[in-house]
Write a structure and sequence with these properties.
Shape: rod-shaped
Number of strands: 7
Strand content: 15-25%
Order of helices and strands: EHEHEEHHHEEEH
Distance between the termini: 107 Å
Number of helices: 6
């Protein structure tokens, strides 16, 4: 609103502005009323835009928070220095840390791959090219035990700053199955080698028998491949 008054001290004018008035015009200078109104309308428009922007940001942050909390994967956001700036409840539960504890850490404390300088540099280079990076790593719990994860990492902007968003999926069961299949494959290879060696020895024995029969003037007994 705009105050139109016959007289107004500087202190009263300042107090009125603090209370929400956009401007004031003295009756003796009504020529200022039109530009004052135009200026007030511009201020209102800017104020409305700012309010809408804040509401949009709040809504987007609420939606983002809802999405990350609904994720069954451990999710964490880190800045380009590796400092953790956000996590979801799954991360806290999986690692045994509180949210406040994790927000005071560098990701190298929990992610073994990030503590490897070569892997870290390679990931950052690929992210800077706009790639989404998928790697296998191990996350370290508070009790120092570890478990295997597949991490998908991308760059997003949070409050106009680039940050890394990582989704870490527990692949313990998958790794267990892979190890079981690998062990079975190795057993079959051993069995196959034993079988092949056995067949070779049988063929050699049969050849020797056939040679002896030849020497005795008799027909060969075995057909050797």
């Amino acid at each position: 609103f705009i105050i139109v008054t016959g007289s107004l001290s500087e202190e009263m004018a300042a107090d009125s502005i603090k209370r929400g008035a956009w401007d004031y015009v003295l009756k003796e200078n009504l020529l200022r009323l039109t530009p004052a109104i135009e200026n007030a309308l511009k201020l209102k428009e800017e104020k409305d835009k700012n309010r809408q922007a804040v509401e949009a940001l709040q809504n987007s942050e609420e939606k983002f928070r809802t999405i990350i909390e609904q994720s069954s994967d451990a999710l964490y956001i880190i800045n380009l220095e590796g400092n953790i700036i956000e996590v979801n409840n799954t991360t806290c539960t999986s690692l045994g840390y509180t949210r406040d504890e994790l927000l005071s850490m560098n990701v190298a404390k929990i992610d073994t791959s990030y503590s490897d300088g070569n892997i870290r540099r390679n990931v950052l280079q690929r992210l800077q090219k706009g790639e989404t990076v998928s790697i296998e790593s191990f996350l370290t719990r508070k009790d120092n035990t570890t478990y295997p994860v597949e991490i998908n990492i991308g760059i997003i902007k949070l409050k106009e700053k680039p940050v890394m968003l990582g989704f870490a999926r527990d692949i313990t069961d998958r790794k267990k199955r892979e190890n079981e299949l690998k062990a079975k494959y190795e057993q079959l290879e051993i069995f196959n080698n034993i079988t092949v060696d056995r067949e070779l020895k049988i063929n050699e024995t049969r050849k020797e028998v056939n040679d002896l029969l030849k020497q005795l003037g008799k027909e060969e007994k075995y057909k050797v491949i």
